[in-house]
Design a protein that fits this description.
single chain, alpha+beta, 2 domains, three-stranded antiparallel sheet, 4 helices, 5 strands
Length: 147
């Protein structure tokens, strides 16, 4: 297991689950204190065990009870957003592309696309992901692609 400070520094002291800052000085016993999540992830057809990511203690504990969820922020105007964790897992296993959201305007789609790529740079740092915005039927589709 890696040192908490090494994992924290690598993850810029942000929780991989809620994307909120983690206080490196907080007690590891506090709900908002730092902890290392030693979960597993998929890469191609292989299961990789031991992916260590920084999480709040409470977020890490909660993840053990229910499947991890990376929420889309309320300020983004997205319709039918795909569950981010499931979409990334499918792209890691199969590659290709997947529609992850619809937006009513190109500006909304661009804002959501920028947020998504920024969020995924911390959630799935080992994956190269890009987005593509396609217009169709009076809406804009955001596609997530595995490179």
């Amino acid at each position: 297991m890696s040192d908490l400070n090494e994992v924290g520094a690598r993850d810029a002291w942000r929780c991989w689950l809620c994307d909120e800052p983690v206080d490196p000085e907080a007690s590891v016993n506090a709900d908002r204190g730092p902890s290392v999540d030693s979960g597993s992830a998929s890469k191609g057809k292989k299961k990789i065990v031991g992916i260590e990511r920084l999480a709040h203690r409470a977020c890490n504990t909660q993840k053990g009870k229910i499947a991890a969820v990376v929420p889309w922020p309320a300020q983004l105007f997205v319709i039918d957003p795909a569950p981010i964790v499931a979409a990334v897992d499918r792209l890691a296993r199969k590659g290709g592309q997947e529609v992850v959201a619809r937006c009513p305007s190109q500006a909304d789609a661009e804002e959501a696309s920028v947020w998504l790529l920024d969020r995924l740079s911390r959630f799935a740092p080992d994956m190269t992901l890009t987005t593509q915005i396609d217009e169709g039927g009076g809406q804009y589709l955001i596609k997530l692609r595995a490179a």
